[in-house]
Amino acid sequence: MKTCRSCNIRKDEASFHKSTRAKSGTQTYCKSCTKAISAARPDLCKARGERYRAKNPAESLYRHLAKRARLNAAYCIDRQGFCDWYYKQPMQCEYCGESQDNARALYGHKLHIDRKIGTIGYRDGNMVLACQRCNLIKNGYLTHQQMMEIAGRYFNGPYGNAHEELLEALKRLQSVVRDEYHLLDIRKRPSLCLADAQAGTAIAKAEGRA
Length: 210
Fold this sequence. Notes:
By secondary structure, this protein is mostly helical.
């Protein structure tokens, strides 16, 4: 049992959110009070969240990564292992070399965590950082090697010896994206539209039309 410092009501431990920084292992305010405070001061909560993400980028990112892995029943590296891996990265896209700041400015998103092989989950050796553009184009349709070659040839990436069959792979990707558009929830369609547009731009450059 624990007393909430906001409502002063004694409640069981399940009524408090967990906290790794508190000695008790839970927050000082109960869930009900925390929810009420958040509703009353959304600006304050937003600012607090932004400060936390800026100070702890890996820890914040891991929460979303672990949740996604659970939803897809995929393997996910442990929190400490992920943080150790993340803070060793050069903070640039694995495929095109775009920096974290440039990726955010160009695409409105920080670098994503991409899996080289999508079927084996988030584990050390299978994770790379990728910008929004490269992540959407690869999107489970292309292998890590194919995406490296495409980015090297069309996006000024570090790998520059792409082959003609990769152009065909891009065209197949574009075809698949268009076929899947009508099958997806409407909220997910903008991402497919962007992937289609990026693939189209790469094809145009490859064929000398742009």
